[in-house]
Amino acid sequence: TLTAGVVAVQGDVSEHGDAIRRAAANHGRDAEVVEIRKSGIVPECDVLLLPGGESTAISRLLARQGIDDEIERHVKTEKPVLATCAGLIVASRDARDERVETLDLVDATVDRNAFGRQKDSFEAPLDVAGLDEPFPAVFIRAPLIAEVGRDVEVLASWDEKPVAIRDGPVVGTSFHPELTSDSRIHDLAFFAEAEA
Ligand code: GLN
Known about the structure:
Blueprint: E1 2-7, H1 13-26, E2 31-36, E3 47-50, H2 55-65, H3 67-76, E4 81-84, H4 86-91, E5 108-111, E6 122-126, E7 135-139, E8 144-148, E9 153-158, E10 161-167, E11 170-173, H5 184-195
Parallel strand pairs: 1-2, 1-3, 3-4, 4-11
Antiparallel strand pairs: 5-8, 6-7, 9-10, 10-11
Helix pairs in contact: 1-5
Bound molecules: glutamine.
Pfam families: SNO (PF01174)
Family: Belongs to the glutaminase PdxT/SNO family.
Subunit structure: In the presence of PdxS, forms a dodecamer of heterodimers. Only shows activity in the heterodimer.
């Protein structure tokens, strides 16, 4: 059984739980989903999910609960993380916003709300490296990935800007793969090595 921790201080938590269960089932695995609201749980987890929501709130609560250091340790031991939208903002090196205490899990600089306000949310078919068919990507007040470091692999771009990246064990997306029934991004983040 795969223990999947969903950071649950704020944001779209239950959707990620469903998505990782579906992805695990596709690979003949069981996933036990645990919600992370306090310290002490991350060290038990095989994989972590950092959901969308409001990055200022998420980063503040992670620091207050002492979960931030645990997530950094998880990544240092090369265990996988999928960070989506606000989760990617929190996981970035720099969010160009003092209110967000970033975790520096991926070597990327992001701009919050760069695609515009809520009304500018949209869904689009997206070509993603490693996927045969386009992925239905849901963007909701999505961050834009402004700069990536040399070791970062760009998995997908929209309008010539990266919107899905991989840096070692961490996959980050500007969009919300947990909001569709398509679990291929969760597959890429957590089960790609098993395939290879
Ligand atoms: N705009 C939000 C933020 O900056 C992220 C939006 C989302 O996660 N859907 O935190």
